[in-house]
Write a structure and sequence with these properties.
The protein starts with a helix and ends in a 16-residue tail after the last strand. A hairpin with a 3-residue loop joins strand 2 (229-235) and strand 3 (239-249). The longest helix has 35 residues, at 2-36. The protein contains 10 helices and 4 strands, in the order H-H-H-H-H-H-H-H-E-H-E-E-H-E. It is α+β, with helices and mostly antiparallel strands and 289 residues long. Strands 2-3-1-4 form a 4-stranded antiparallel β-sheet, covered by helices on one side. Helix 3 (61-76) packs parallel to helix 6 and helix 6 (139-151) crosses helix 7.
Amino acid sequence: MSNSTSRFKCDIRELSSYAMLVMGAMIAAFSIEEFLVPCTILDGGIVGISIMINNLSSFPLGVLTLALNIPFLLIGMRKLGNKFIVKSAVAMVAFSSFLEIFEPFVDITHEYLLAVCFGGVFLGVGVGFVIRAGGCLDGTETVAIFLNKKFNLPVGQTVLFFNVVIYTVAGFLFGFDRAMYSLLTYFITSKVIDFVEEGVEQAKAAMIITDEGKMIADEIYKRMGRTVTTLEGEGLISGKKAVLYCVLNRFEIYELKRMIKEVDASAFITISDVSEIIGNHIKKKADPQ
């Protein structure tokens, strides 16, 4: 019974991830067709190249995007794992299809600043959903991931290099004001992607150096349901100290600082971002009703 239940939950998660892929592709396509294309503002990567070709010819943007992405999928097929490639293929097909669906719609705005801001936000949300679901929308990202695995080149810097080249070419073709608008859109999109990928409850790590380790650890567990790892430390001048390490979300930071001030006003606290958590982080179980 437990095996069938876990399998069912796994299937639901997998279906949910594909639903998120399609939803992300739809939002990204909406942003491209309704905000960026009308103002000749480019996205990066293959989509940006497709927009340039679309502006210089009569080829449909959706067809161009899919056709140019296929070789990059084939390149990454053996090195990046079947699940990633399948999810990326699903996202790219959905994205290209939605580009064609949204193409006849009336453009939302021709104001460049509005197109940059809202287009960048919508595009970041869409791409962020796709990344959270385990896929990608652009072939240059698969190449960047492949180069990272093979030569340890940073993915972000590789994608940025590709995009700078694309925006430079766009500057010569459509004017450097369009290239600068496109670059600004890229930075907005990147920030929104980071926010969506990490989620609203982005993890934070707190390190607390105190004389009241047991009391603070108990209060953290009682008030926030977070467990604490306790270490022994020794200050050069202050002597023996308890060092507490705790992972929480950004909304719990204020409560943590307020609580520590009540228990030990002399405690030393550092707060840092956590990019990834691997393994189980235990929270207090809900009290029985």
